[in-house]
Amino acid sequence: MPLDQPAPEKPAQYQATPARMADAALTQALQPSLDLANGQLSHALRRKLGQELRGALEAGTLALHYQPRVTLEDGRACGAEALLRWHHPKRGNIPPGLFIPIAETSELITDIGGWVLRQATREAAGWAQNPALKQVPAVVSVNVSARQLRGGVLLRQVAQALEESGLPPERLELELTESMLVDGSADTLLTLAAIRDLGVGLALDDFGTGYASLSVLKRLPLNTIKLDRAFVRDLPHDAEDTAIVRAVQGIASALKLEVVAEGVETEDQRAFLSNIGCEEAQGYLFGRPAAAEHLRRTLRSGG
Ligand code: C2E
Ligand code: MG
Ligand code: MG
Q1: Number of structural domains, the chain?
Q2: Structure pTM?
Q3: Which partner for 34 in 90, 98, 264, 276 could form a disulfide, CB atoms 3.0-4.6 Å apart?
């Protein structure tokens, strides 16, 4: 049931008040790419979704899907990104682009982030049993939010998840966004350096869409840049995008950073990226996000 539909078993609670009708109209208008980050939905609806999300976390009904990441040279899966999924019993699947910004307005995101780290490391530790992965260490990438960086929480969560799961630290990578890093505070730098010292990788997600200056690439202990799919979409025909992508690849190579191209959907995009020396990619061409069981099959078949 979409977000704007009332839950059937409690009709009295869902009489069509003007506020609810406004929420419903807005929700409808914004489908499918609802963006609560822009504050376009009412405070009441945001608060209700936040409470329901807390309930889902506590009831253990959140899930992770995994999207394979492949080495462009040979097409083999070399890892996967964990992507959070919330299937609401009444409202149906709610996209992370909608519920993550709600969670990010409170400490809820810290609790969710801790659960994602524990779950992803536990599942990835199981991939080691997979014979296809013997030569290629499969890295699991986990998205983290700015709030987790506060007060050293992220470092504690990472250390705990690694200890509980037994996953070798080099098989975990954290995805950070440019906006999280823009302040470049001493606290952030220290936390990230401590995480790198554990042996965990750090990737800059959605590269090119945020506010980061090039000095972020220099100052932070990153190993990977994830090139946002906005630059990949019109490859190889768009002259500006081809120039930008070549330039990013050049900078990354010079700084010894790996580039992962996001949102690769066509063979032409794959060929272009491979030709300019991009090492890795993710996208529907190689595999959509799916439950761990499906990913294990993908990894077993080598891509
Ligand atoms: P992201 O980290 O950039 O994740 C990649 C998004 O691109 C995913 O959307 C994925 O399904 C989508 N995608 C992958 N390949 C293709 C493609 O070829 N074409 C197109 N059009 N899309 C593709 P999803 O799963 O809806 O996630 C959206 C965002 O939600 C993520 O963007 C990430 O910022 C956030 N997110 C997801 N899981 C978590 C989490 O556990 N914690 C935090 N803090 N954020 C999360
Ligand atoms: Mg990501
Ligand atoms: Mg991304």
Answers
A1: 1
A2: 0.87
A3: 98
